[in-house]
Records
---
Amino acid sequence: MLKRLLYIAGILGLLIGLWGLYDRLVYGHMHANYGSYVVWGLWVALYMFFAGVATGSFMLATLDLLFDLPLFRGSGRMALWGALVTLPAGLAAIGLDLGHMSRIWKVYLQPHFGSVMAQLVWGYTIFLGIIIISLWLSFQPQRSRWLKPIMAVGLILAIFLSGGIGALLGVNQNRVSWHVSNLPTQFPVFNLTSGVALMLIAIGWFGPQHDPRRTQQLRVLSLAMIVLLLVKGYYLWSDVSQALYQNSSHGAAAINLVLFGPYGWAFWLLQLGIGMLLPLIILTMPIGKQGFAAGLMGLCILIGLAVARANIIFPALSLPELQGLGEAFHGPHLSFTYSPSLMEWAVTAGIVGAATIGFLVGTDRLPLFTRPTTEATGTAD
Amino acid sequence: MSRQPTIPLIPVSRRGFLGALVAGAGALAVASVASSAITEKPTDTIDMLTPEEALAAYEAEIARLRAARISGTPIDQLERMRTDLLRALTKPVTERRWVMVIDLRACVGCHGCTIACVAENKLPPGVVYRPVIEEEIGRYPNVSRRFIPRPCMQCDNPPCTGVCPVSATFTNEHGVVEVNYEQCIGCRACIAACPYGARTFDFGYTYTANTPSAAMMLGAEQAVSYEQTSTFEYSKVHARRDLHDSPVGNVRKCHFCMHRVLNGQLPACVTTCIGRATFFGDANDPESLVSELIARPNVMRLKEELGTEPRVYYLQ
């Protein structure tokens, strides 16, 4: 029943997304609401979110396929499948955000490696290859000796790419709320949280019901999630308190926008309430370790993380670099206020729908929770 | 190869100024017709003055100014700056240092420079290179206003170039931060990095499209053709005809009108400034007007604490 509902939601999202994609491809960026001042909008936040889920899922996959933790044996493929589905979703979001998508080849053939963005493009490409190869190797009847080295490289890359998103923002010294040294160090934690949340959904909702390890896996994932949420809460507190301590600074203005701006409700209700506090409470209770509740909390955490990505991007860009700039010249897309357009939402629905369907098809068609019997004895070629 | 039409310098008197406006509009119309008649490719470039041509023009200008001085005719700042400019063009490129100076006390907030820039570069809706920021100072009854024109600062240490993943934006040999429209992928990282908000994205708007009255408008075809005709930014010919081709989908910015400067003409914003608040020239030339101005004690640059080393100076 749950799966059927998710399929329907995914297909609906995909259909809406097709209209959005048509609009985007025919009319370019004209019907988007980001502009020359708030330059990055919903799709960049979506990219950061999905890329975070992908790298976090890969980190989780290493528990099985690199570190051979007995408890997580058999969950590696599922985590890799999650990474394989979400990474292209993130790349599609950021690809559609480009002014000239067809020139993406220039980043490969004429890159400027001093740019964090160029490093990320190359990194994601290699990372996608690693996900595909490691997933393929994990499906081999005999365990390949190449799997562990590849997973090790992938883990390092996943951490690098996670920090890279923070660095992409952090190098902009003119954006005070981004230009803090610990921003790149926060993202690996955020992304690991995303990965654990996806695994809560995967194991809680789609995991093998009769596997005796499932309950224990959910228990450990829930505990890990509680710790991660507390660390995430600590980061949030340090960001907010430091910025507000000097109430006159640019950083304080950005935080004030997050907390009390037009979308303050999204912070309090979605990011903090549903995304952090509710899961913290439920996951500490016995019911939180049960399949459905654990999956639901995973979904809540993912929603909170998506809102958090938006709250990192939009407010920092909504503050004029020079006072009065927003009123100096008027024209389309010259505004410091931003709310996503219908076309942006439609494309977002399509990408989320496609990722959801891809994930569900994998759980239906692929043996994601089983591993070759030869592995049970630790045999390797 | 096409040649930039010569745009006359704006004289001092009001009558002269109005005359020049008419002449400017005429020149613009001629330019648009002429440029639409040629076959343009983005890689086409326009001619620049050779050092020999610049020297000849400089000597002629000096002779004219000398005659004017003898006859007692007042010499306008624009004339001096143009002479400075021609002198700079006789030097090797590496020995020039183009700077802009804006006198905030002289700016009257007419936005003439903004409009001149839009006309010169045929900027579409939503793209602006030189807005004038208005600032209100004090409380009633002690209130005053200040106008801050904000071109690209052409920083010597630009934060916008390093973030570009494909080196589409860079400091060119003239010291001007350039955008290569054919290279830019439109990621907008450079906009996020600019501390001055000096870059805008071309979303593909036109003034006439989807305008209900455009179909009935007299001269509608000419208006459309004007919007599609070429600009000469970075001394290259750029037509703007397709929603999916450059410069649509690119980041755009002020470039100190280098296509004019290299032809011995001052930037459009300088020539149209009625308050004579904007100055341009070679700061490496001790005899230039801008060299004198940036040595004054009331000179400042925006956000100097960031270490961007802007080439735009303000007198306050």
Note: Residues 318 and 336 of chain A are 5 Å apart (CA to CA).
---
Amino acid sequence: MRDFYGTPTIWMIIVALGIGTFVLRYSFLGLLGNRPLPAWALRYLRYTAVAVLPALVAPLVIWPQATGGQTDPARLIAAGVTVLAGLITRNTLAAILGGLAALYLGLWLIG
Amino acid sequence: MTDRPALSRAFWRGTRQGLPFLIVVVPFGVLFGVAGTEAGFNFWEVMGFSVLVIAGASQFTAVQLMADHTPAVLVLATSLAVNLRMAMYSASLTPHLGAAPAWKKALVAYFMIDQSFALADADYARRPEQSVAEKLAFYAGACLPTCPTWYVGTMAGVFLGKSIPPAFALDFAVPVTFLAMIAPSLRSVPHLVAAGTSVIGALVFAPLPAGTGVLAAAALAMVAGARTEIWLARRAAA
């Protein structure tokens, strides 16, 4: 990773992400004032997190790097338990703990 | 002019309500410190993410995409897309805090995370009679247990990261964290449709160059979620 980007690019990404995130946070509060967001924009914004994060996760779950891309039952089960625990408890930390518990149990049982 | 006891009451009410989030923010910060170190970032870079960006999901996104050698422009586009919801938070807080001086609004913006926003939004709705100063005091109080602890958690994760053996399968901590963040929000049909589209899209587009598949899948998923919402509303109205 380090050799691919080099230190200046790494810092460029960190700083640019920091500035961009700040602009999003400051946008209405400081720049756009009290103008309401149009309904269509709100409708799309509602789904940003749930649109981006599963796309990042899906390949990592199906083709884990640690197994050289070989689908791994322990990791599949752990992913399923995480989602279930999150759906039932509505609690992110409970879902993380449930998922990790399932992962370690799975790795220990299946190997 | 300023009512000191009222300000201090608002501040401590915010702190009290923010305290339970310690059990989310600290472990999540530790996990980011571990994930960043695992990906090859040094101490200052990992801390740079947590101090300059201070937005967990997008930090994990950037680290994951960079571990896959995604071009810098796509790393930024995808990570910022994760933070688009902040613009929505900013719009919701404007009627309450818009009258504050610019430097205070800049601080509010910097410390705007899911937890501080959710607490402030709920408190302002419950106590609409508060002055802007009281609302700011509440916000500052709510940030105290939820924001600096993010830096501390990250730092602890960096030092822990090097001492955790491979048997702990830390490669999978990132997927588990992401899934745990999404799962509680899969409460409506449009959210489920968006998440499903996102997963299928990412798998179908996997052969595309690093990062582009994720962005394409995310764009499709956003449209799918919004369209489903419109369709359901129309059906309910008919």
Note: Residues 4-161 of chain B form one domain.
